[in-house]
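User: I'll paste a sequence; please echo it back and then give the predicted structure.

Assistant: Echoing your sequence first, then the prediction.
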Amino acid sequence: QQPTSVCLGTDGKLYVSIQGQPGVTNSGAVLLLQDMKVTPLLSDLQQPGGVATFREWVYVVDKDRVLRIGGKAMHPLYAAPNTFPTPPKKLHDIVIDPEDGTAYVSDAGGPDGSGAAIYRITLNGQISRVTDASLLPGLRRPTGLALDGNAHLLVADSATGTVYRVKVASG
């Protein structure tokens, strides 16, 4: 099992996404590490990546969808592939604005970088594109994300080694 992301929640709990067994379908998971105990929160994931928290929720990107665990939600699917402006190819990371709960997710795109984009998901589930290669020439494989205050997003591009600073209001 390979850890892919880790997040310290506002509640002081540690959350880890793991890839699972190589060659075994849907063997990924999100784990809670607390008091020297490991508790599975969600299993049977395809390709879990970034994990983040906001209020009582834990978010994880899983290949082409975003899941939300916790609260009163009975179903963890938060953003389905068909709700994105363009169906995601390989969601990689997620970061949540601590002020309003807006999520930003990176789609690393296909093997050649096609379809690479950054998306915004509002707390009520509305999805829009922040940027892609047509708006940010040179963007090829956005992977890592971080918020730089409330107006900018830092985007690490693993194909070029570049870190972009993107204004979230305009892309």
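Residues 67 and 77 are 5 Å apart (CA to CA). The first strand starts at residue 3 and ends at 8.
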